Structure formats: structure tokens, C-alpha cells
Amino acid sequence: MLKRLPFLVLLALLSLLVPSPALASPGLSVGHLGGKGLSPEVSPGESYSWTLLASIGKDDAATDVLIEVLGYGENPDSGVQPLLPEEDKSHYSARTFIQPGRITLHVEPGETKQVEVTVTIPSDVGSGGRYAILRFSTAPLEEEMVKIVSAIVLPIKFTIKDSQLIHQGKITEVTAGKAVSGQPIEIFTFFQNTGNHHFQIKGQIEIRDAHDKLIDTLHITTSSPVPEGTKRIKTTFIPQGELAVGIYSVRARLMLEDGTVLDEAGGSFEVEEPYVPPPPPASVTLTPGSAAILQTADGRISISFPQGAVIGQVEISLRSYPLEQCPTAPPGFNLATTCFRVDGLTGLLAKEAAVTVKYTAADLDKAGGDASTLRLARWDEADSQWTVLKTKVDKEAMTLSATTNRLSIWAVMVAPPAEEAASKWWVWLIVLAAVAAAGVLFFLARRRRGLVK
Length: 453
Prior knowledge:
Distance between the termini: 71 Å
Number of strands: 29
Shape: globular
Oligomer: single chain
Largest sheet: 7 strands, mixed
CATH class of the largest domain: Mainly Beta
Number of helices: 3
Structural class: mainly beta
CATH topology of the largest domain: Immunoglobulin-like
């Protein structure tokens, strides 16, 4: 059976699920061969072939799979959604670039069917990006009392080569959910792409109280909607302590990856009665005279504080942190999947603490299966930058360990190949020294034998 391809992580699965053990939608898998992928760079007037694949599980019933080329829609709340031809009014549509626009395949159990389509880029296509969606859907079986349709959509994003790419946009609104004790406060930033191409966004949201005192800074890392589209960017605010009754301001700033500011906008939320934050997953009270360990319930993350780490009593808490809110990784590095935040300490530790993180299979997958490239990194709020720490990797225990004198947002990162090679400079030094020594011994041996004067 055709395995699900990695890019399906980005796909929206649109299914009608029926909670009955007797009914199950076919195990539909889709993919493509040849062509240029789902986010290609193309030239005006260019034409190429694309082979689409569809398969179902060997234990599934035979079914018809409908393949449709549809418009690229984007709902601020639900994200990417296909648009029927009569609904596709965007100037940036690529729906007509792919032919045929509708195909039906009959697929037997365990079988993989393929069909060829043609992608043709108009010579007068213009600049920027062009967008479409491929939707693969199964036909409901006639004998089913309840009709079940399973569908997978593949977003396609073309970039017109050597054209002017305009990356700009505006924040149309900043809102927040109701502040309810024991629950995180959700903040929503609505961003509209007013350019002609898709791009990556980073940003931050500042939370201030009625006296304009900064309470917290949330970070944003996400992608823009397609041109003319609007996206709702959700961030989660978990206060470190109780919030008094009053009005709290929210200031959102979104930027390009190079730091160019796209837009800024403000909003607010009201705390109508004293707010108590949700309990953190783990916490510990540190005192100067005792050592302590802060550890999550599952043991994946632990921080060991030696005696004398603090000069006064302090409550330290640890909670998971949304990956999409992590600041952008430093150049050459990539975020893995583990991210967490440690709160309670405003200054430096008197003695360094030892941080140990058990990396996950998803972290390892991000590293291409090479655990030696995984690193622990700490976000330094004062400097607004990541510090990638010297990390000990234990492949047998699947752990990463480092020492630190401050606490903040933490992430598992994947180091670039060059950084990994540089970290082993001493290995190359030993090799070169060994080669040099062997050369000297060879020379001396030949001299003793009278071969060299």
C-alpha cells in the first residue's frame, strides 16, 4: 500500500466521522510523482506533467476516488478550504493551470492507481504566487446505511520565477477570549495578506496592565494567508500569577523574517473578577539551603537545582509552550517539536542548574534521524535572542542535557551540519596529528635503512 507522504502533515483532513465500530471510511492515501512538488517555482509559458496517486487499504472495500482541481480558499477561523469553480473569484487562482480538472479512479483493495495531469503556466501569468487545491475524495458505498465520505486536500502554491514578490499585509483586528479563572486566555490576531505572494511571519504580542506595566510577551511564528486572504493567528496567554480586576491592553506586532515590520495594532481584554491562572504542570519551591528537582509528571523534562542556587525562597513552575509561539530559530537552526517555559525566576541563578530533556520520536524525525544534531536552546528575553547551549546527547537514554544560570522559554533545536562538524574539531585534529606522526615514523624508518640521506 502506498505510504502516506510527509507533506500530509500540512493537509486538512475533511471527514464525516460516524461513531460506530461497524462503519469505517476507506484508508485513503494520496501522493504524486514527477512534476515539481506542491510548492514549485515556475516560469511563464512553462508546461510539465504531474502523476497523481491514490490508494486504499487492503482491508477496505473497493471504491471510486474523485480527484478535483478546486480554488484555494482560506477561512480565518477554519483555515484552508476548497472553493468550487463558481466560487473561485481570486486574481491569484491557479485552478485552470491543471488539466483535466476532474478525474474519477476505481481503486481495488490494496491497489494504487495513478493518473497523469498537465500543468500549464500562462505566458501572461503576471507576478507573485498562484494557488489551487487538489481534493481526493472517496465515493460512499451503496450498501452503507450511513453514507461516509473521506477526503484529503492538497494545497498547491506556485511561485512565478523572476517576478516581483510583494510581501505585505495588515492587522485587521486584535481580540481576546473571556478571562476565566483556571483557563488560559486566548488572543486572536487577524492578519490580511495585501501582497501578491505567501510568506513567513514572526512577531510578538505584549500584554500590559492598567498602569502600562509589561506583564508578558508572547511570540509568534507562522505563515501568512495567500494573497487577498485573512488568517486568524491564535496565541495563548497563561499569566504567571493572579490578575486583578481591570482592563488589560494587548499590542500585536507582525514582521517579516528579516525583521521588517508589517503592521502593529492593539486590543484589550477585561478581567471582571480576580483571575487565577491554571495550575502549571509542575512546580517546586526553591530555598537557599536545599537542593531540589523540578520535573514534569511524565519525567520527560527535569531541572536539577543544587543547594545555594537561589539566595531567597522562590516558586518555580514549568509548563509546555506552544511551538507556534516560539521565537524564530537562529540562522541555520530549525525548531524540533519540544518547547517549554520555566517561570518564577526574574534574575540569574547563583549556581547553575542542570536541564535534562528526553527527546521524542518527532524531535528525532526533525533531525533526520541523527540525534547528534539535537541541541537545547534558551530564549533570553533581555537580549531577544536564542542561546544554543553546549548539549550532551545520550542516544541510549534519548536525553539532552545542558547547564544554565537562567530560566525562560526552552526548545529542542536541530543544528546545521556545519555546526555539527565544527563541534568535532578535536576529532579532525587527532586524525591530522596521527597522519603527521605516521609520516615522521615512515621517514625515520627509511633513513635507518639508508634510503634517505
